[in-house]
Amino acid sequence: MVFMGRFVVQWLSSERQGRSVIPVAFWYLSLLGGAMLLVYSVYRRDPVFMLGQGMGTFIYLRNLQLISRERRRLAAAALASDIPNDGPEAIGPGASTPLRSAG
Question: What residue spans define the domains of the chain?
Fold first, then answer.
């Protein structure tokens, strides 16, 4: 059910946007399903099954890591573009960025 759910999420997201997309929920559902199958493969003591599910789980985690890294990079870039860069001479009395009092 988890693996089928990820394809439903992907399909609905693509339909909404009118183009093929892979939402983050797809990767979380993939990770959950892969982890469940990995646990089952360990229970069955099937090394081929373990290897396959272990690799899949690694790939799902890596995709989530790449998505997180990209989101942080975009957030930092957006924050940097919102901060006025008047240089160090603009900080002080009468500057557009007031100094904070220590008290």
Answer: 2-73
